[in-house]
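Ticket opened by: R.M.
Priority: normal
Category: complex prediction / small molecule

The reporter submitted a protein together with pyridoxal-5'-phosphate and asked that the result be attached to this ticket for the collaborator who will pick it up next week. Submitted input follows.
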Amino acid sequence: MKRALNFNAGPAALPEAVLKRAQKEMMNYQGSGMGVMEFSHRSKEFEEINDRTNSLLRNLLSIPDDYEILFLQGGASLQFTMVPMNLLEEGSTAGYVMTGTWSEKALKEAQKIGNAVPAASSKDSNYKAIPDISEINVSADASYLHITTNNTIFGTQWHSFPEDMRVPLVADMSSDILSRPINLSNYGLIYAGAQKNLGPSGVTVVILQKDLLKRSKKELPSMLNYQVHASSGSLYNTPPTLSVYFLMLVLEWAEELGGVSRLELMNKQKAALLYDAIDRSSGFYTGHAELESRSLMNVTFTLESDDLTASFLHEAEESGFIGLAGHRSVGGCRASIYNAVPLEHVEKLAGFMNDFRRRN
Ligand SMILES: *Cc1c(COP(=O)(O)O)cnc(C)c1O
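Result attached by the on-call engineer:
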């Protein structure tokens, strides 16, 4: 069977090895005569999956012991609400660095909960770049500072991070978690919906400093309370068992490949192919992101005219490339090249871009 040349932004490509393994175990997980989604979430089998997923993630991201790992539902979008509900203290503020559509949504939801304000913004330049760290303005008694490490829609990514801001750093890492090493001790909390780099949709990973759990008030609805999920090992209610199982398979795949440092090298190699095709096109292709802010995950670009863009997208589709149209809010083209997108597929796309340019 031929696999699609899948450049979808999310849900996105999964490693072929993961799909094959899931297929093999679909009806009979480890001789049980049942598929994973048929087990009770209180069964020994599922508890093992839950624990193993937890420890794989802890190893791969070098998560220190004083951090809790939660597997929740509701997507990254629910974290836009849960973060301020749990962490934004009364009489205090939260700062949001505005780098694109997702940070706008995060701020909007936080403002429904408490006093959240922009701490820096690159909106004036249509989010072409990540603001300089020196521009970030957050008060020393703020509850936290929120950033979006990779801007899926605009194709920008943070490459250096605020340190010593004296307030906990909270990061939406939905579209670049597991793509490179991170120094977790810089963060109070990170979160990510799974469907870009971690697995299928349905599970959201939240990693937070245990100390911050003290901020979750008893009055919060239980399902929206980090403390409740932490004290039940993410088994407070029925978790998305199949998504957690897939997450485990993806983490095993990442570990076998050589971990996040290896993935980062591969991601740099893949991104370089596409950025080279853009940079060597003498203006035929224009990258949306400024050089220092370019994303290794989402490569965004436009062509000289809307007609040419349309014809590029049309021919790309005819040639079997999936998911290259840019997000409706930006237009143009976007190639999402998450961990699971094979190098050969990116080589084919770079080849297609060069060929299309020569012909036009
Ligand atoms: C996809 C995405 C989201 C939204 O995730 P959902 O799981 O659909 O809620 C939020 N933030 C970023 C950076 C994303 O890429």
